Amino acid sequence: MIELERARYHWEFVFLGANIDAVQTADDFGIAPQCAADFHADGQGVESSFAAVSRAATAVRGGVRLEAASATAVFQDVREDYRSRGQSRRH
To answer: Any idea where the domains of the chain sit in the sequence?
Structure first.
């Protein structure tokens, strides 16, 4: 389904997950790893992840394909927050 939506409608997909392996789960759905990120299920994590989604939407509206290397930069803050505050932390 995701491939069809990409091909037919030029949709872009991102996958953010708290308390799961978001990159693996995204891959299971056919979403590129650079378009996925783990985040902490707290205010700071949600703020960081929603800011990243906003940046992703802005990039797509500007004609950028998220599967390009640009997606890595879009979600860098989310990944850094997740790493810096402990990957194994769960709520």
So the answer is: 2-84
